[in-house]
Amino acid sequence: MLAADKTAAVAASASVDGIAPAGGVEAPTNFLSQIMQQDLATGKHKSIVTRFPPEPNGFLHLGHAKSICINFGLAKTFGGRCHMRFDDTNPTKEETRYIESILRDVHWMGGSWGSHLYYASDYFPQLYEWAEKLIKKGLAFVDFDSLEEIRRKRGSITEPGEESPYRNKFSVEENLMHFRKMRDGDYEEGQCVLRAKIDMKHKNVILRDPIIGMSFFYEPRNKWVIYPMYDYAHGQSDSIESITHSICTLEFDLNRALYDWFQEALDITRTRQIEFARLNLTYTVMSKRKLLALVNEKVVAGWDDPRLCTLSALRRRGVPPGAIREFCERVGVARRPSTIQVELFDRCIREYLDERAPRRFAVKQPLLVKITNLQKEETLAIPVDPKNAAAGNRQLPFTNELYIEAEDFMENPPKDFHRLSLGKEVRLRSAYWIKCNEVEKDANGDITALLCSYDPETLNCSAAPDGRKVKGTIHWLPVKYAVPAELRFYDRLFTKPFPEEEEPQRPESSWRDNINPNSLVVYKGFVEPDVVCLKAFPPQFPVQFERLGFFTADAPCEYIYSEPGNDTSKAAGESSWGLDARAYERPQGAMPVFNLTNGQVTHAAPLQALPASRIKAFFSDCRTRVLEAARLRQEAAGSRSAHRQQQQGHCFGDLRTKEGSLGVSVPLVKGSGLVACAATASSRYGVSFWRGGIHWQGADLRGHRGL
User: What is the predicted pLDDT for the residue at 509?
Assistant: First the structure.
């Protein structure tokens, strides 16, 4: 999804006060911080209290990240606090998984709410009491019109509304009676609603007798069958929590009048609503409805698909929260709506990772190179970061068989091609110069290998001792030590910068026509052997594959523990990287997922997902059984298998999973034991146990094009 860096045209007035500004630089002020400074200076408020109030009906996206940075960031800047509140006022669309996901995302972004975690539903008793107060003041009534009639009679911005026949039909006592019947569940869902009595001819349509509360069917898990509308619950919740500045996006601009009307009518603590322009990004959709359509229609693999703009997707994609905060800071806070070029987001990620991600080599489309004059392999010192000598070196063997990118060779190149070609030389990154002397082809005429010679006098040379020079430099990998990996290149999900933009004579769903069919390209390539060592490459921390981009490990399915008798199917919607690890702790009395029977490891119970971080504990518990299984398997496998494994110094076990058989390789070093293990999603990739560390064979990797 990340694209090549281009100059971004950004319309923004000033920078946002980030939660943790990059580099310790003080963030410039914006109109929100200026308001707060003035309120503190005049004594209007003694401290600043903001809030982040998402509805738990979906996953947070990049637009929410801006709000997180603003609300938590400003509170931190002024030594105040930011409340975390769930506006759980719509029981038909809310789920516990959304609450868990939102809490994780806000914490990941750096938001800290301390003990100030609230739910609007906690205030329902007070909101009900205030609703009765409005009825007693003659400012609210129970309406038995259907919702369709209420919408029809509301009018438009050019036509006044029409009063409901129930507006003045009941006395205060009768309205209270009907409202209490709503509370007790005596009315069917949608049979009646409570409405504020304001002005049906008001030019602001929002103030035309808005609905305060609706009746829902009773559910045993709910104490309430009357649920307040967002516009009613929101401002009063702010008042209850003594929020000083209620910051929201511009689509609530017209709602501010109703926000103020309720607080004035109820004579409660007044709070101030302030709006800012929401974040819009090119080549992206942030509408929950359209994101849901992309998931349900299987255009993407789930809510954490790296092509989406959800925070769980960005996290899985390897985007650090610091890069998102830096982006929000550069975008700034303004009142005027604008659309930010996605190139600016790409640039923030690239600049952030370029200073932090270790460099390694990877080859996505390997072409075999045979060095015909190399007598023995040697180990070369490769800079971890060519821009930072203090980062030190890594070791990489240089052997007589190498992989290079297939696109780095052309048999008959154009004049401006400076990589490897027949009879020409090229520089291998941090290694020697090689010259292609011959090309090997198969029966179809396809190139299978290059026969090359290397110049031993050109190690890390910009010019050879005899004065000759080369223009091209390419990366490489030693075949003997290269680790197979699936490399996933993600591009933009849409082909047009404004995918939601309506076009003449096109249906509303035309945004679907702009979906990029090539947004994901998968290669079966190779990476350096230490890339998949978790100690050097922690989960979701990117590595920079030189000349390819930034990549991060992906483990969409890990499986270990199962509680007997329970349904242990994996929760839909996100990979286990994106789920709360606490939900996958080993339960009390849980059984391992395999039994040892005659050297065969088989299922003991249905499998349950578990993050890689928990696999270590599992194999620590079960190492004896696995080692014994591996020994018996080797003995039963016969001389051919035993000879193959003895050459590698390993024996094999066999863990059977829902995905199929999963190979287990165990070092034969006496007393070494098993340190830890991490499993990949696909059974075609083995799991290797390595003494003193962790190693993935064929770990799934994912990367970003154009970085």
Answer: 55
User: Is pLDDT larger for residue 456 or for residue 22?
Assistant: 456
Check if the beta carbon of residue 22 is closer than 8 Å to that of residue 326.
yes
| 216 neighbors 227 (Cβ within 8 angstroms) | yes
Collect all residues with Cβ–Cβ distance below 8 Å to 316 and sequence separation of at least 6.
304, 306, 540, 552, 554, 575, 577, 578, 702
With the C-alpha atoms ordered 624, 625, 630, 633, is the resulting torsion angle positive or negative? positive
Supply φ then ψ for residue 111, to 5 degrees: -75, 135
> Are the C-beta atoms of 433 and 427 separated by less than 8 Å?
yes
Catalytic one of 55, 377, 500, 546? 55
CATH architecture of 359-480: Beta Barrel (2.40)
| pLDDT more than 70, % of the chain | 71
* Residue 197 annotated in active site: no
Those residues whose C-beta lies under 8 Å from the C-beta of residue 189, and which sit 6 or more positions away, are 215, 216, 217
Q: Which of 153, 180, 181, 278 is catalytic?
A: 278
Torsion of CA 441, 447, 453, 458, to 10 degrees: 180
Instruction: Give domain 486-542's CATH superfamily.
Output: Ribosomal Protein L25; Chain P (2.40.240.10)
Residue 55 annotated among the catalytic residues of the structure: yes
Name, in order, each residue with C-beta under 8 angstroms of 444's C-beta and a sequence gap of 6 or more.
none
Determine the pLDDT at residue 17. Answer: 40
559 contacts 607 by C-beta, under 8 angstroms: yes
Give the whole-angstrom CA distance, residue 161 versus residue 604: 67
Query: Is residue 486 flagged as an active site residue?
Result: no
Cα separation, 312 vs 609, whole angstroms? 18
Domains 133-227 and 486-542 share a fold: no
Question: What distance in Å separates the CA atoms of residue 97 and residue 570, rounded to the nearest whole number?
Answer: 13
Q: How far is CA 79 from the centre of its chain?
A: 30
Determine which one of 288, 356, 625, 656 is catalytic: 288
- Domain edges within the chain: 22-116+241-354, 133-227, 359-480, 486-542, 576-679
pTM: 0.73
Burial of 384 from C-beta contacts in 10 A (0-12 / 13-18 / 19+): middle
- Residue 680: name the closest of 513, 556, 550, 530 by CA: 556
Q: Supply the pLDDT for residue 252.
A: 92
Structure token pair of residue 236: 């009063």
For 133-227, which CATH class?
A: alpha beta
Strand runs labelled E in 270-424: 272-276, 280-281, 339-340, 359-360, 362-363, 366-371, 378-383, 393-398, 401-405, 409-410, 420-421
Longest dimension (CA), the chain: 104
Task: Write out pLDDT tens, residues 46-97.
Answer: 999 999 999 998 899 999 999 999 999 999 999 999 999 999 888 888 888 8
Does residue 16 carry a pLDDT above 70? no
- Superfamily of domain 22-116+241-354, CATH level 4: HUPs (3.40.50.620)
**Helices (H), ranges, 367-416:** none
Q: Which two tokens stand for residue 254?
A: 């017209």
The pLDDT tens digits for 303-321 are 999 999 999 999 988 899 9
Is 694 exposed, middle or buried, given 0-12, 13-18 or 19+ CB atoms closer than 10 A?
Answer: buried
Q: What pairing do the DSSP bridges indicate for beta strands 520-527 and 483-490?
A: antiparallel
